[in-house]
Every structure is written in C-alpha cells, then in structure tokens.
Write a structure and sequence with these properties.
The complex is a heterotrimer of chains A (304), B (326) and C (527). Chain B contains 12 helices and 2 strands, in the order H-H-H-H-H-H-H-E-E-H-H-H-H-H. Chain B is mainly alpha-helical. In chain B, strand 1 and strand 2 form a beta hairpin. Chain C has 3 domains: 141 residues, D-Maltodextrin-Binding Protein, domain 2; 121 residues, Dipeptide-binding Protein, domain 1; 230 residues, Dipeptide-binding Protein, Domain 3 (Dipeptide-binding Protein, domain 3, Roll). Classes of the chains: A mainly alpha (304), B mainly alpha (326), C alpha+beta (527).
Amino acid sequence: MANAFAQLRDSDIWWSFKRSPVTVISAIVALICIVTAVAAPFIAPHNPFDVATLNLLDAFKPPAWIDEGEADYLLGTDDQGRDLLSAILYGARISLFVGISATVFAALVGVSVGLLAGFLGGTVDALLMRIADIQLTFPSILVALLVDGIVRAAVPREVHDQIALFVVVVAIGISEWPKFARPVRGSTMVERNKEYVLAARVIGVSSFRIMTGHVLPNVLGPVLVIATLNLGLAILAEATLSFLGVGVPPTQPSLGTLIRVGNDFLFSGEWWITIFPGVSLVIMVLSVNLLGDWLRDALNPKLR
Amino acid sequence: MFAFIISRILQSVPVLLVVALISFAMFAYVGDPVSIMLGQDFTEAQRTALVADLGLDQPFFIQFAKFVGNAVQGEFGLSYRLSRPVAELIAERAPATLELACCAAGVALLVGVPMGVYTGLYPRSLLSRAFLTFSLIGVSLPTFLIGILLILVFAVWLGWLPSFGRGDTVMFGWWSTGFATMSGIKALILPAITLGLFQLTLIMRLVRSEMMEVLRADYIKFARARGLSNRAINFGHALKNTMVPVITVVGLQLGAIIAFAIVTETVFQWPGMGLLFIQSVGSADIPVMAAYLLLIACLFVTINLIVDLLYYAVDPRLRVSRGRGH
Amino acid sequence: MRQWIAVALLATLLGSQVASARTVRWAASGDPNTLDPHSQNVGTVAMVLQQIYDTLITRTETLGLAPGLALTWEQAEPNRWRLTLREGVRFHEGEAFTSDDVVFSLTRALAPTSNFGIYVDTIESVREAGPLAVDIITKTPDPILPNKLASVFMMSRSWSERNNAPRPQNTRTREEMFTVRNTNGTGAFRMTVREPDVRTVMARNDAWWGWREATSANANVTEIIFRPIGSDPTRVAALLSGEVDFVLDPPLQDLARLRAAPGIRVLEGPEVRTIFLAFDTFRDELLYSDVRGRNPFRDLRVRHALYHAIDIAAINRTTMRGQSVPTGTLFPPQVNGYVQAEDIRLPLDAARARTLLTEAGYPQGFGITLDCPNNRYINDEQICQAIVAMWARIGVRTQLNSMPLAPYFAKIQRDDTSAYMLGWGVPTLDALYSFQSLVATRNGAQGDGIWNYGRYSNPAMDALIQRMKVESGAARLATIAEALRVVRTDVPVIPLHHQMIPWAMRSNIAIPHMANNQPYFRWARVE
C-alpha cells in the first residue's frame, strides 16, 4: 500500500492533479463532505433523530441571517422544527453511505463477474455478458424500482423498514454492476492469453491466484474511474428513489428525502427547506463528478 | 445473419418471462386491491366474493400462468382503478410519452452534438469550459429539481409557458398529438427540456471525448499530413467517425428517457404512461403496473436487438466473434 | 399556412381570459375513478357526479335539506316515507323523469355491487304511488332517511337498461360498464368530454329545472373543465399562472402566497370531517409495542396520558397553519346531535401525563408504532410526526409508520395495527353515522363497528347506539349527548381537529363554500 502511494506521488497523475485547480478544489470539497458526514454526530449542533428535543414552536424558522432567524438554527428549521443544518449533515451521511456502498457493491459484483467471464470464456462468458447487456439497456432507476418492489413484496413491512437502507444499496448496486463487468472482462480476456499467465499456469499456479494477482491490478484504473463517475449517479439515483417515495425510510432522511419534503414548501416562501439540501446534494455530486472526470482523463493514456 | 437474429430473439424470450414473473410477483402482494375497490363500507361476504371473483384466492402459479397466457394476447384485464381495459389505457397514454421522449431526445441531440463537437475541437476555449461546467451541473441536478425550478421560473415568475399537462391535443386516428396546436407545442417545451437535459450532457460529453480521441488517431494525423483543410478533417472524418457510438448510445438512452419520464411526468402532470404507472402504484393497480413493466421490457429488448443488429451491420469484426466490448 | 394561423389564433383565444369568461377551469388532486352513480362512495367521485346528476333531496348552502327531484317528503307511517316528485324534469338524453326512475335508482343503490349501502340500508322496498309519487318502506322507522337520500343520485331506468347497466358497476366483472364513462342525469351540467386522468368537460344544461330557483339566479357558468393535477406545487403553479381558475384543494403551506397573489381569492370554511387517533384496545398484548404480557391502551390512564401530551394548539398553528378547528369530540357542529358541552379537550399537561403513566405502571414509558396515512388527510403525515415528538417528551417512544392510503387502509382494515390515525366525514350529517361506524362493537351486523379497527367495545355505548337507531326527537338527542359524554370520558379515540377546507380561485369567481367540500357550480358566477 505504501508502495502504491509512493508510486502515485511520483506519477503523472499527481502532477496532473496539482496542475488542475478545479480538481484540487473539488477534491477538497469532496473531502469536506466525507469528513462532515462521518463526523455528523459530533459536529451537528442538534440531533435531528432525537424527536423528544423537537418543538413545533421552532418550525419554519428561516436561516439565521434573515430577520426572524435565530442564531441557534444557522440554516433555519423544517416543518417539524428540526435544525436544517443538522438534518443536512445527517442526510449527507446517509446519501454518501448509500452512494458509496452501492458503488462498492456494484464494483464487487461487476469485477467478479467480469473476471469470471473473461477468464472462463465460453458459455459462462456468453451467458453472463448477455445478462449484463440486457440489464445495461434497462435504466438503473427502473431496475432499482424493481428490486425495491420485490423486496417490499417479499418481506413484511416492519422488517422492510429495518433493512430498507440495505435494500436501496442493493437495488442501486445491482442496477450498475454491468458497467464494471464489461471493461474488466475485456482486460481479463487480453491478459488471459498473455504469456506470463500461460507460464504461471504451467508452473501450477491456480487460476484464482492468477486472476487476483495478475489480472486485477491491471484493471484497477478503469474500475476506479467508473466507480467515481458512478458514485455521483448512485447518489442521484437514491435521491430520485426517495423523491418517488420508495427510497430510504423517512426515519433516516437522506438529502433526497429532505428535498422531497421541502419541495412542498418551495412556493410558499419557506424556500430554505428544499434549497439548502438541494444545494448540498448538487455540490456533493458535482465535486465527485469533477473528480471522476479528471481521473478518467488523467488515466486515459491517449489523452495525456 | 438470419441465424443471428433468430438466436437473439430466442434469447429475449426468457428475459421477458423473468420480467413477467417479477412484475407479477412484485405486485401480487403489494397493496390490497380488494379494499380499494370496496370503498369505505362493505361486509365480509362482499369481500370474500370479490376475492374469489378476482381469482386472488388461487395458488400463485395458476394466477401467473393465466397472467402470461393473457399477456401474450395483449389482454391485461381491467384496471382496478379505472375499470377499463389496460391495453386501451396504455394505448391512450403511449402517444403522450412517446412524443415527450422523442422531443427530449431531439433536444438532447440537436444541442448536445454541436456542443460536444465544439468542446472537442476547442477544449481550451472559454466557451468550452462554460459548456463543460454547465453539463456538469446538468448531471449533478436531480431531474425533479430541474422540473420544479423550470416551472417556478418560466410558468410562475415569467408566465411564458404552461406548468402542466399537454395543452390542446388533436386526434389523428387513435394517436393524440400535441404538435398540431400552439398550446400543445408550448406545453411540450419545459418537460422536454427537463427530460432531455441529462441526456444532453451525456451526449455532449460523449461526443467531446470521442472527438478528442478520434482527432488523435493516426488517420487524422495522416489526413492533416496530406494537407486536408481543418473543416474537411473535422466534419468529414472526425465527426463521421464519432457518430456511430453516439447513435448507439442515443438508441440505448431512449429507454432511459422513457423510464425517467416517470419523474418528469409526475412533476408536469403529463398524461403519459409514466404518470399512469405512478398513479397505479399509488392505488395498487396491479394489472396496469404489470402491463407497463412488460411493455417497457419489450421495448428495451427490441431496442437492444436493433442496436445489436446495427453493430453487426457496422462492425465487420463482429461477424467472426461475439461480444462487443470496446 | 392560413390554417396554421387560424389554429394559432384559436389557441391564443382559448388561452386568454376573454373567451373563457364563463368557463371555469377547475383542478383538484384526484380524478374520479368511475362515473357510475352508485359504485364508489367517495368525495372525488361525487364532486363531478353532483354537477351532472340530481338527488331527490338536495343540500342548501348550509347543508340543510331542500327539495330536489322530490318536492315534498313526509313520514306517512313510522315505516313509510311518501315523496312527491317534481313535474316536467327530463334527463340529458330526453327521457322524462318519473317515479319508476326513483324505484329503479334506489333499487340499484341497494344492489350488492353498490357502495352506497349505508344510505339505503334501512329500505325494505320502494313502490310507485302514481307517476309522480313514491313510497319508501323501511325495515325499522328511519327518521334520518331524507338525510341519506340527499346522497343518492337518480338515474334513468330506460337509459340504464338500454345500455346494459341495470346494476352498479361491478369492479369484479371483466367487462367495462357503460356507466363508468358515460352519464345521463337530470342535473345542471351534462358531460361532453371524458378523458380519465386528463380532463372532464361539462356544459350547461339549459333545460335544468333549478335555474329558476333563487339560489341559481345569478349563476352563469356555461362550461366546466375539470383537470386532475396530483402534484401540489404544480397545482398551485397552474392557478398562479392562470391556467386554471379554481383549485378545490390548495396545499395549506401555499395559502399565504395565494392570498397575497393578485387576482386570487381563498375561501375558507370548515369541513364535516374529524381527524382522530385510535388504539387497539382489544388484544391482550399489542402487535407493535415493547410491552409484553399486557396492553397499555386498555388502561384509561394511558389513553388520558397520551391525550394530555398532545399540544393541539401548536399543531393548529404550525402544521395546519390555522386551517383546523381543534376539538374534543367525535364530530363537528354541523352534525345533528353535536353538544357544545362535550366538545372539551383534556388540557395539554405533560407533567400530568407522566404521572398518569407512572400510576399505570410505565414510569419509563413504553414503545409503540403509530400507523399513519401520508396522502389521505390534510398534512396527515406531518401531524403524526408532530405527535411522535410530543409523545417522546412523556417517554412514549413512537415509531412512525406512514404510507400511502391504499396499503394503509389495507393494513388497518386487517386490524393489523396498534395505534392509527383516521379522519371521519359525515355525509348524512347525523351522529349515528359516526357512532355506528367508529365505536360500536363489531358484531357482524351491517354497519356496526366497520371502521372500529381498535375493536373498542363498551356495552353501554352499544346500548346507546341501538337506541339512536330507532328513537326520534328530543329523546334521540339526549341519547346522542349521553354517547358523546362516554366518548369524552372513556376516550375510545383521541380527537385532534375538524379539518378546514380552503378553496382557492381567481377573484372573478363567486361560489358558496360548502362544508361537504363539494363545489356547486350551478350556484357559481363568473364575472
């Protein structure tokens, strides 16, 4: 790992990173997002999940810098008297958690399937890639709706509420794995026929060791790019599902849920309830997308 | 060629069956059509009779077999909510969604391609950077938020465009079109932009990167060496070569557009299939939901088939070996 | 080209104010799921049907009774009502309205596929007593029959039978029924276009008998275009941008903005609908609670504690934005039998609530799940969220389970709940409708306790309800008052408030606000 870091510092990538101020800024913003999200319980001024502390009398307070605002509620409060800043911090935490978990899940499934298909070839390859092909034509939001619907149908409601977060993760993850499987399979096929792999086989190294030890490092770059680009999509997918009312449970509001709830108040003058979570979501996704964009260009040897 | 088509079609059948099973199983347990149909007051006997009449007391697989048998004949039964044949309902809503989807795809193509070409040719110009920033914001904004903001600005503040519905439509046979009246066209603008924006940025970025890649290709360098004009190179060679992947992606994205129409139609109250689907989810209208999912599956499988055939026609290498990874 | 210009001009004209002077473009969140007059007993269906169909007895602006298709009605014998009908009334398609149509319509409403059973449940038979007179024979004396008849629409026998619709649309049949999309009433408007979920157009019926009545003297609406717009912000935007003229159900949070908007008027008024919370008081152990071996809700002290914890004033001011009437009783003042002295809430008193919980053996509180709809009543989910927070403060840890109305009603109708929210409207405007449905012991008899999902059972209450069914006059009112006292002291439900139903419209429309949430465009005037 340390070795990898050293490699990174000396590489062109680091150089191109330092050269792009936009990328540096977006990396810093992304880092802030992650840190505040992880540390939300410690830095949030209120705990939005502790309903006993909520008071309806505090509802609809505008941001602190507006006339009726209170310093205690920097970004104002929502319809239940919840501190919006705290709700956003906790919401970003859930959005990020869903986004990252879904992407990791998709990457794990996708890379495994890609390796398997590329290495084994033949019928297995044909079957797996056919599934990936077909699924890729289905928009991820529809696949996620389907998965969520099936789980809703299969488990009782009380159980569903407890596992809802994981259902959303799996639903979004499943809808995106083929994006990883395709390039991994491609690289694996190329590597498989190289002489060192054949040689490794001759001296009796197991197929599994070959795949993980030799093929995997070669495909990590593209996987990282796809993962970064998909993280933004995954976060948006979660927000859209929450907007349609089938995302994370309302007891654990994500940024998407906050926007959906606040949306009802957009025309009525209480704009902050939807605008602040919306802006937070856009900033988060934007910084991730910028990073992904840069990463793709930086890792693409043709564009260097 | 013929064998290839046949094998692809055969491969699609199990896919459709699985989707049918999923859509049926998914909704067989969600909501309770019986209590929705009975309304506020009923007796236990009425309830039992209704359950029996709907066949809801039969074993799962018998219900499913019936469902598939009927689906093959285009018979999805009666909507629980509207008491009308589902096929008729969907046929009524399809024009709205298809017109919206085509306009959105049109917006995406007509704006996205030129922007992509420009940013590909002049990656360092100020305008390119502006386009890129705009496109990044475009992909980072959720569709529903874009729709609401557009309504706020153009319908409520400026009062230029309608905020909902299709305006006045004209019937051509069974097809109702919004293109024939001014109000119909005006009503299309905001939803089409909302729906097309994400695809627009996608196409722009795709064209840009394809353009940049192609411009580095040997044959372009060769063409330059031959002294061809920039114009001839850029549009004669480079653009032509980027169009194949772009058209394929647009084809595949048509599916995504129709699916994301669910969100757009909800925001703009657009009377299409997506709104029908969401309204049906709200009232647990199983026949409509099942039919919608199956229809979408058929549509996607068809699109996928056409894209496969296109690839097959365009890329001779595929005639030897399968797979189409880059 | 000229055609195009003509089309464009026409479109501009249609869109402008001038040409639509007497057209009302009306929007609401829901679309009727059928137009069969006796198939669905819900407000969204009635709001369109009552423009088209008449009833024998109609409502006045204050929801009193007025002659409709029947000019007079009297209880000739305890078990027989005699009605005389209006002369010279014709259906939209030309058929003359006669006593035979009344026999047909009431019999149709009695059919098993009808959803209007609660309005005709006491009817034994209906007989013609001449071309313009009808006798209704009831199983038991039914003093409130006229109230119920005010909800039953009259159809033409010959039209219905000709079009194969002699009984109400049966949602079980695999065929589409003619009456689902076609109408033929005697009412003020006749339907000209019906596109489900998109638009329904109705044109003025010049031959309507009621245009001569004083209430319609100033009415001038010639066309109603109804469009369902489900999304709250979109519905408001459509009104603000002038695309619709009348919104039946503007979201509460937008009222201030609508009131401030030029050219828009908000009419406010109460609805005959009461929102309350109810509990499982039947099971020995709750389905959704961390209390084992006993049911806390069976303890009156616990119900009192939960009642004391609710800050109804805060809900009224913040969640409902003033658009509610906090109440301590089962139904609003418009309902026959209402007693002011019983409309008293237990005061907000968190300390008292905690004491009561401790006395009941829950010093540390307990955990429960509250089931709540999220698209049925005005701000239902927000109210539940607020109550969850209020209960948390007295130590009752509440898990909120909110869902759309379809799965919600499916769940509570299986008695699969420990605590739930319900809103109860009273179309008959008589107390019996509420008592019988909500707090009677569920014993299998038609109507008794069918919406009592906590299965509250109190023999004293049941006895009072039985008396209410047959008594009349002052004795009956005394019985109702007694039943209201039981509700107040025994707390089978925790009442929250009566809903207010603001209507928003362009200021050039004058229409009386109705507590049954029905816009009567036959009384409306557009300037």
